Amino acid sequence: MMTSALSSTSRPAPTGKPIALALGLGLALLAPSTPVSAQAEDSELIYECALVLEFAAKNRMNLSTPASRVMAHYGEVTGNDAQIRQQDAQTIEATWAEYRGQNGRKALDRYKLSVAQDCSDAYDELAQREAAEVEGELNSLGTLSAAALRSFATRTGDFGEVANYLVYYYPYGKNLFQPNEDGDLLGQLVVEAGAAGLRRWSDEAIYAIANKSYWQYNPPATRLVFAEYQRRMRMMRQTESEAQRWAQRAADDRAEQARRADAPYVGSLGTGKPYKPKSGSGVYVCTTYQGTGGGRVCKEE
């Protein structure tokens, strides 16, 4: 395991120069694969992170990692052992007192804020790494798992792109007699997006979801989608039958593209460009995409 710059052998020097947290915190100490026994050796470091992040928050320093998250991690590492916490608190307080006596209160405050920034950066790096791992997960169907899609939605805030992805893979909705985590997730995202958020979703997604079953039971999501569906019909001066025919044609187009492609279409996750089916030419061009959700895509030009 990489050694942290805040280990017991590298505390603030008498020169008064603050020592920042090494990247080892994010790359080794916080790695999910690191044994708990190894993490426990650095419990003091994690506890100091929690303390300095709390100090930074009280001093109006806007950091992305809250002290509560680090304290929860500390509890996991130490098993919430009160004796370990007392020992760590005493060690840190003694170190800070020595530093304050040699360099003054202002220097100690600068040290705490510097370490708080490093701690926050390290935990952010861990979160990004974990998100990348989760967002590559596939389910039994070979598509991105519900956990992967939730991670993408949480990280980017682009709920509509997840909807585009799911209506492509389920052009005619879900099987009404089988549980479906994707459908459950989509219903949750609809409720979280709310009426205002749904206005940014693609016509294809709204029309597909309104005309086919995508979740087993979620009345709030059903009401929100149908209200948005009716709003769009009014804007496009469509009757109910015209809208249903449009939705059916779009679903047939998606199903045909999936049938012709050698590998599943993966949507446009991460590009910010919602999928829009093209029709008319009968010419299909296939492109291979790399990265999260990558694969071979065949589209009609």
TrEMBL record:
Amino acid composition bias (Basic and acidic residues), ranges on this chain: 250-262
**Sequence segments annotated as region (Disordered):** 248-269
Which keywords fit this entry according to its UniProt record? Signal
Q: Which residues form the signal peptide?
A: 1-38
Under what name is this protein listed?
Lysozyme inhibitor LprI N-terminal domain-containing protein
| Record lineage | Bacteria, Pseudomonadati, Pseudomonadota, Alphaproteobacteria, Sphingomonadales
